[in-house]
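Human: Can I borrow your eye for a moment on a structure tokenisation matter? Separate attempts, laid side by side, tell us more than any discussion would. Could you pick a protein and write out its sequence and tokenised fold? No explanation is needed for now; the record alone will do.

Assistant:
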Amino acid sequence: MVLQMIEAISRDGNFNINISLTPEGTLEPGGEKMWRDFGAFLKTNGQAIYGSRAWKIIGEGRMAKNRKGEMEMITFPAAGILPKHDKFQMTTEDIRFTEGKDGALYAFIMAPPQPGERLKIRSFGKSAGLLDRPVKEVSLLGSPEKIRWNMEDEALAIDCPASMPSPFALVFRIAF
């Protein structure tokens, strides 16, 4: 659900949720855990979600040929919660963007990286020409750790901290 929501909001879309109950009017135990995990993600990353809007591009990531033989970005499958969703794997190369109402950019890393892993956001690199202002600060929502980063020609390079605040996706705040 987290990845489907991120795909929707990075396109200025909306995300609707249907909460199914048992005939007795309660949640299945697995469903209750899922909703608690989803709520924790929203609480930690809400500033990148609520009141946000799509940025200049929806994101960046791995590419594959579509049915027409054209190259396009791989995205998380839409609609429903089906076995194909459970088996679908995103990587740390798959990144989606939003612009917050605070003017910051938010980069959703669609798979949790390894502690200390160096991420490269190519859309924020100097040569991409997509940023209107220089980056002043990079922080990881839900983490108290100071994030090490540097601006390179080909990418904004970010060193991940020792611990990750979410098992689903990470959100970096890029401030100007």
Remarks:
- The chain is about 15% helix and 25% strand.
